[in-house]
Write a structure and sequence with these properties.
mainly beta, Immunoglobulin-like, 5-stranded antiparallel beta sheet, 45 strands, 40% strand, disordered N terminus
Length: 566
């Protein structure tokens, strides 16, 4: 049986804190505890509230139950992983899968108010007492298995050059779906869509449709998140996830009518899943009224407050116009406010908008539009990329001709992704006049600097010219220093003719193969795609049909991997 010391603190380490209106005494202290089952660890603490307070002139003994949570240290800060309550004796214990990598935890008790009552003759006197917030000492647990040896869930960040299989499927032929794979800021949480074998037989996924799942790379667990209030798989197709920075919120689109109350339109709608509450919220609505037509392609801000999405529904716009064009909306989940950021007062507009990508703070949104009326001198008759700044309610063109402040490029541009800090936008384009070196007459990946308004060719070969085949599916790290994309080119590092591979480009323009075999810089024997990069650019999630990226994957099915880069 595995045993892990979680704290060296004893009663001697107890804290003495003042409590308003209460007797000052020993409050909280962490205690030693150990794993109680093989492969698990139990993290325990004792949260001792003041034992007596003064009510109506007498001291009354109290033993309140109070909420607590378990937090784990990540590169992005402390992340809540479990929530619970103390017993009346102040004890709390969290049991979870033993981490593979060395991991640091702490127990946190937020401020809490309780009511204490004392009977005095025929009367009952009540008093509200505020128990102060407390954060327990950080305690580190040594990983149960060495990094990279295939322990439960694997380490959060394996060695540089490691490619790790994320074991998200309970059965060998679990099917990864058509939508994007997205990774949280610290690389711990990965959201994806799939069906047929992701969860074990007899689980709550029995709808024979695409569903959205959330995988925890620390515990190795995969959870169905597109579920009804009773926890069962929704009654429609769900896909296209996007994830908040800490992995708590996941937004996606679904045709299901039983994910949230009031969804009776039989259309695609946009939802947000809350991992902590294990609940699903309908976003594409106007008050209590759901959109009358499809809403799709959602994205979410770092804290989960703002959601941007594409909609056909005229009744979701602040100034509804009945037409057949799609527009991009931004919704504030806190206030309920809605903005149609791609719509202007022209009635009707000449084109549609879509593919929104939102910055961490929710204030910058990149999107596409075929409209010629959003900016001046948009006369290319093609879809372009734009960026909207909610702070100034201003909009500008991104895919514009090199050296020109206004003229849109001579080709179709799409699939924008904005960096978390809002300073960089990566996208694809078939235009050949966006940046120097683009001479391949194919779709390439570009990076736009919001401050300088300059486009740079990302998918280039060693000579600085565009790669010899198309590149697509771009993604970008929080500060724009790492860009990931898929390419079929044969003149990029590790290229395999006829098979798309995932690449990562750094700020210097250096490009490396990301969909490489474990511990190698060489490609596997299958195609790869759907890349997503962590906030710091070190972890890249992707899918591949290869059978030789890691041992034990002899059957050629689409699997999910995580690559660590410098």
């Amino acid at each position: 049986m595995m045993k892990t010391l979680l704290a060296a603190a004893t009663a001697a380490a107890a804290l003495v804190l003042p409590v308003a209106g209460a007797h000052a005494g020993p409050l909280e202290h962490a205690v030693e505890h150990s794993g109680d089952r093989a492969g698990t660890v139990e993290i325990a603490a004792t949260v001792l509230s003041p034992s007596r307070i003064r009510v109506a002139g007498a001291r009354v003994r109290i033993r309140p139950v109070r909420p607590v949570r378990l937090e784990m240290a990540t590169p992005a800060g402390w992340t809540s992983v479990r929530e619970g309550h103390t017993t009346r004796r102040g004890h709390v214990a969290f049991t979870l899968a033993a981490p593979s990598a060395t991991t640091t935890y702490r127990v946190v008790a937020p401020a809490h108010r309780v009511t204490v009552r004392k009977r005095t003759g025929p009367h009952v006197v009540s008093k509200r007492v505020r128990l102060p917030a407390w954060t327990g000492p950080a305690r580190t647990i040594v990983g149960a298995t060495p990094p990279g040896d295939g322990g439960p869930g694997g380490p959060v960040e394996p060695p540089v050059g490691a490619t790790r299989l994320l074991d998200v499927s309970a059965r060998e032929h679990g099917d990864i779906g058509p939508g994007d794979v997205v990774v949280s800021a610290d690389g711990r949480w990965v959201a994806f869509d799939g069906r047929d074998g992701i969860l074990p037989e007899g689980s709550n996924d029995h709808n024979n449709a695409w569903d959205v799942f959330l995988h925890d790379t620390v515990s190795g667990t995969t959870t169905l998140i597109s579920h009804d209030p009773g926890g069962q798989a929704a009654d429609g197709t769900s896909f296209g996830p996007r994830i908040s920075a800490d992995g708590r919120f996941v937004t996606f689109q679904s045709t299901a009518g039983d994910l949230a109350p009031g969804d009776d339109n039989e259309q695609y709608d946009v939802f947000v899943y809350d991992r902590v509450a294990d609940s699903v919220e309908l976003i594409s609505r106007n008050g209590a009224t759901v959109g009358i037509r499809h809403s799709i392609e959602p994205d979410i801000s770092a804290d989960g407050r703002y959601v941007a999405f594409t909609t056909y529904a005229a009744n979701l716009r602040p100034d509804p116009v009945v037409d057949n064009n799609t527009q991009v909306m931004r919704v504030d989940r806190t206030t309920g406010e809605r903005w149609a950021i791609s719509w202007r007062s022209t009635d009707p507009m000449s084109g549609s908008a879509g593919s929104p990508s939102i910055s961490d703070d929710g204030q910058m949104i990149a999107f596409t539009s075929t409209s010629a009326e959003l900016v001046g001198r948009d006369d290319n008759g093609a879809q372009d990329v734009f960026v909207y700044d909610a702070r100034t309610a201003s909009l500008r063109s991104v895919s514009r001709t090199a050296g020109s402040p206004r003229v849109t490029a001579a080709g179709v541009s799409g699939t924008p992704r904005i960096s978390g800090d809002g300073a960089t936008i990566v996208y694809t384009s078939g235009a050949d006049d966006l940046a120097a070196g683009d001479d391949n007459e194919a779709v390439d990946v570009f990076s736009y600097d919001v401050a300088s308004r300059v486009n740079t060719l990302v998918s280039h070969n060693a000579s600085g010219h565009s790669a010899d085949a198309g590149s697509h599916e771009p993604g970008v790290s929080r500060d724009g220093s790492a860009v990931v994309f898929v390419s079929y080119a044969t003149d990029l590092p590790g290229a395999v003719p006829g098979r798309g591979q995932v690449y990562a480009a750094d700020a210097s323009g250096r490009i490396e193969l990301a969909s490489a075999r474990d511990g190698s810089a060489s490609a596997g024997n299958g195609g790869a795609g759907r890349p997503s990069v962590s906030a710091d650019g070190r972890l890249i999630a992707f899918t591949s049909t290869g059978t030789d990226l890691v041992p034990g994957t002899a059957v050629a099915v689409n699997r999910l991997y995580l690559r660590t880069r410098p």
